[in-house]
Amino acid sequence: MRLLLVAIFCAIICGGSLVPAEAAKPLKVCILSGCDTYKSEKSLPPFQKFLEANYNVHAVRVVREAEDDLPGLEQLDDCDVALVFIKRMQLKGEQLERFKRYATSGRPIVAIRTASHAVQTWLEFDRQVLGGNYQSHYDRGITTTVEVVPEAGKHPILAGVSISPVQDPLYKNSGHADDIHVLLRGTIPNQLSEPVAWTRDYKNGRIVYTSLGAEDTFEQPGFRRLLANALFWTARREVETKKR
């Protein structure tokens, strides 16, 4: 009886529902930034501010200092989810092993655009973990139309998401793994469509990859919402917005 009364009291002070203790803890996101081509250090700092201002998120950003140096990777050890936006880094030694250890452990990953070729010294990351098969991209300057795959329309990652045509050169990913679940496809004139966002289960962990991620695309509210939804989904948590 005493335990029942305590539970009822907690329900009252929490607004009529029992809230798991975990829900009150901010989602810790470790952001890996290291893509000069698409200016990750212009896109990711404002995205980090957006996350922390609007969601129950605490983010740390690990920034590339040289092609073989990504100091601060120990932040991966206790994060809830990694957001990866680096390109062709020549990681080696302890840094390479730490990245591999995280990526192959079944822990959550949200990967953006050049993450398909994030580490030149471990290109298998794309096929082995993300489930992709990056084969370069179509010419620049061609507008890509982005459409939701019909059977994915009710997926939680797509809640509130609408993405306008983008200028990101469309990535070629034919030959991707059979077990990815495509959410969005991109189309340019006179070419077959390509998957531009998908999910995958890897070692009982959740993976989300999108080949979108140009600076202009980051400015779209729908793209920012897509990434925020993906971060919570991969961590197996409901999206937790901040009350205003």
Write the layout of secondary structure elements.
Layout: H1 2-13, H2 21-24, E1 27-34, H3 40-54, E2 57-63, E3 81-86, H4 93-103, E4 109-112, H5 124-130, E5 145-148, E6 181-187, E7 194-202, E8 205-210, H6 215-218, H7 221-234
Parallel strand pairs: 1-2, 1-3, 3-4, 4-8
Antiparallel strand pairs: 5-6, 6-7, 7-8
3D structure, described in words:
This protein is α/β, with parallel strands linked by helices and 244 residues long. It has one domain (2-234): Class I glutamine amidotransferase (GATase) domain (Rossmann fold, 3-Layer(aba) Sandwich), CATH 3.40.50.880. The protein is built from seven helices and eight strands. It has an eight-stranded mixed β-sheet with strand order 2-1-3-4-8-7-6-5, covered by helices on one side. Strand 7 (194-202) and strand 8 (205-210) form a beta hairpin. The longest helix is centred in the first third of the chain and has 15 residues, at 40-54. The relative contact order is 0.16.
